[in-house]
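Q: Is it fine to ask for two folds in a single conversation?
A: Yes, each is treated on its own. Send the first.
Q: Here.
A: Result:
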Amino acid sequence: MTSHIETLVQQLDGKADESYDARAELIWIGADAIPAVIDGLPSLGGFGQLTAIEVFEEVGDPRCGPALIGLLDSDNPTVREWAATTLASLKIDGAVEPVRHAYRACLERETPPGWSEPEGIRWALTELGARTPSSHHSPRACEPPLQRTPPAGPRPTSPRSSTTWPTTPR
């Protein structure tokens, strides 16, 4: 028999409204849902895995660390990026070397440095204390820095936040 939580996990891969509702309920359930989400990851497609990563990040339970590390080897570049950034935002112990390996894999795939995946992974390494920010790889490295004006409300905690900050030249 399938438990209610296991049903919710499978719904993470469903249509947008069904997935959103399942995600919200799993987050509400909290830490008690994490083992079922971890167990259900292999049966989920890319969309479901991304939604599961959002559950992990919102619940903040470190037991998801090994599952997130496993997702760094996904065939989906967005899953790899979100796994790396969530490992960093949750400050998961032991994540530095797997995230470094994921970054090296990006380089081996010759993913352009300005694309989302390598940028997210570099952010994760910085957050984990494994690198210092550098602008020498940026195509805008020779331009003057931009002054960022954050919007009202809480500051985004990861680079994949839906909030876009307006920028104005100094």
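Q: Second one now.
A: Result:
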Amino acid sequence: MLFHTIRKQNPLIHCITNYVVANFQANGLLAIGASPVMADDSHEVEEMVAIASGLLINIGTLNERMKESMLLAGKKANALGIPIVLDPVAAGATTYRKQTVQQLLKEINFTVIRCNVGELAAIADIEWQQKGVDSGSGSISLEVEAQKVAQLYNCIVIVTGEKDFIADGDHQQWVTGGNSQMTEVTGTGCLLSAICCASYLAGNKPFDQLIETLSLYKKVAEQAASSTPYIGDFQIAVLNELHRLSKGGEQ
């Protein structure tokens, strides 16, 4: 099972991420047996990514200092052949965010983009009303645009929501399930991006591995929601369920 494989491999995942979710993200990676490191200073990111298995770039609390570090780490990871996941949080909410994502995509070759539909619209340059970090509203042909973005940037695109969609330019698949309580706890999408980074490394069929990851994460949501009606406990239940599955628990 995928999470069990990650636990055996214990990959070091270098996260340049946002301060809102860093703790939850780190605990989620630890729960599946990965090793997180949250280094984001420009003086050390190249050295840190050089010893990492994978790199996550998350723009949730974007600033100039962090942007510089993202570019340095991303270019170093590309030079070393280290997979990179981009989480373009609220990419369409402001001009600064949209321009930063465009610059990152221009200067770094990403392996995976994990986004919501509003962030996909921003990357695809389709008019959309982003609501802060939430997906917002607008009109988009999700399947078509996800495939276009995957082809344009030669990467796997994952669009998460009530149903998840994954495309690599040639193949595509919807993944159903989950529970709406995931949207009531901050960081669940950001944690998924970090887990996708670890999952990409867990074998030689990354597209299939990421489909399994999306399916497992939906099951985590369902199990966590069934164990408690309380939103504070739900976050803990998500970590507990990830840990249980990584230890070889029933799916």
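Q: Anything structural to flag on that second result?
A: Two points. The CA atoms of residues 199 and 209 lie 6 Å apart. The chain has a mean pLDDT of 93.
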